[in-house]
Design brief:
By secondary structure, the chain is of the alpha+beta class. Helix content is 60%, strand content 10%. Bound molecules: adenosine-3',5'-cyclic-monophosphate. Adenosine-3',5'-cyclic-monophosphate binds at residues 270, 283, 285, 289, 297-301, 308-310, 312, 349, 352.
């Protein structure tokens, strides 16, 4: 825990230094910067570089001698944040512009942002589709530039004198940016502009759709993998073939519950049963019982269709897998062993009830 905390603090300090460095690079680009400010900002950048170098040496001192950095993304970023700013000392002396090499520090906060990793994964998963849309964009761009050149070159030889010249107009129109520096004058040219704008909107809608689907699929995949790992830790599901387990994994929802919470009360209608992954609960029956990891509860109301027979309270923080009544049948149908175990347990518990 201590190590985790100090690790989090170190990474926060590292990110703060990177942000300070980027702010210094930004200020150094101001043309009217006084020499005092210039010197102070340069000292700041050098100090940050030394801090990163010291952190790198300390962090990697214990590393195996010939261990490679390739594949260790965080270590590669560390190497880049130290190596790239060194280019500032290379000839020719570049005045204030040389400090721009320190902009590589922008990688530091990014390496820890999980959303950034998610974006990269979605881009790599959807690369084929995105390139497909890019190809459509390229085709429309070429056709629009060629037609605009054919239609407008006579009236506007500067803006539309060649296909590459007309391409600038086509890009600003396709992206619906429209700087207004090149405007078709002829009726056909304006009609063409309208069609190109519509195509641009269509292409970006396609891109947005691909990315939105990619994000939702990736998040679903991550959830599925996470729950799969949790489910495979439940002894009762160990023997279930993977094909059936996949359906059960989709039905089970992980739920964290703080210590002291009442999960449900005696007499309430039952809509879910729970498998305990971590922590303990107290079953407030006539003779109170404690249940822990590997146990389940809440099955009796689902089996009988009656109300809850006891109040359940979390005695420690809990990690549960919840199974809704609508998916309960699915679990029972998928595996006779699991169905039998749940029925038997419910029967034993029913007999333990007063008058059972
Ligand atoms: P249900 O009746 O749906 O809600 C209360 C739950 O407490 C019940 O299902 C069982 O899962 C559990 N329970 C009831 N009696 C016992 C018992 N004697 N031992 C262990 N668990 C019990």
């Amino acid at each position: 825990m201590q190590a985790l905390w100090s690790g989090a603090r170190a990474s926060l300090a590292g990110n703060a230094l990177a942000v300070a460095g980027l702010a210094a690079v930004t200020l150094l680009s101001l043309p009217g910067l006084g020499s005092g400010w210039y010197a102070a900002l340069c000292v700041l950048l050098v100090a940050i570089w030394f801090a990163f170098a010291a952190e790198f040496v300390l962090a990697h001192a214990g590393r195996r001698r010939h261990a490679s950095f390739v594949g260790d993304r965080a270590a590669m970023v560390d190497v880049l944040t130290i190596a790239v700013p060194l280019l500032a000392v290379l000839p020719p002396p570049g005045g204030m512009g040389r400090w721009v090499f320190c902009a590589i520090w922008i990688l530091r906060p990014l390496r820890e942002v999980s959303a950034f990793r998610l974006v990269l994964r979605v881009l790599s998963n959807e690369a084929r589709n995105l390139f497909g849309v890019m190809a459509i964009f390229g085709i429309i761009l070429f056709l629009a530039s060629m037609l605009a050149w054919l239609v407008e070159r006579g009236a506007q030889p500067v803006a539309f004198g060649s296909i590459p010249d007309a391409m600038w107009w086509a890009i600003t129109t396709l992206t619906t940016t429209g700087y207004g520096d090149a405007i078709p004058q002829s009726v056909i040219g304006r009609l063409l502009a309208g069609v190109v704008m519509m195509c641009g909107i269509g292409v970006f809608a396609l891109w947005a759709g691909i990315l939105a689907t990619g994000f939702s699929e990736e998040l679903r995949r991550q959830d599925f993998t996470q729950v799969w790992q949790l489910v495979s830790g439940v002894p009762m599901f160990e023997h279930i073939p993977h094909r059936d387990l996949a359906e059960i994994v989709r039905a089970l929802k992980p739920r964290r519950i703080p210590a002291g919470s009442t999960i449900f009360r005696k007499g309430q209608p039952g809509t879910e049963m729970f498998f305990i992954l971590e922590g303990h609960v107290r079953v407030s029956a006539d003779r109170p019982v404690d249940l822990g990891p590997g146990d389940f509860f809440g099955e009796m109301a689902l089996v009988s269709g009656g109300p809850r027979l006891a109040t359940i309270t979390a005695t420690t923080p809990l990690l549960l897998l919840a199974l809704h009544i609508s998916d309960f049948e699915l679990l029972i149908d998928r595996d006779a062993g699991v169905a039998e175990k749940i029925r038997q347990t419910a029967e034993v518990r029913r007999q333990a009830q007063p008058g059972g």
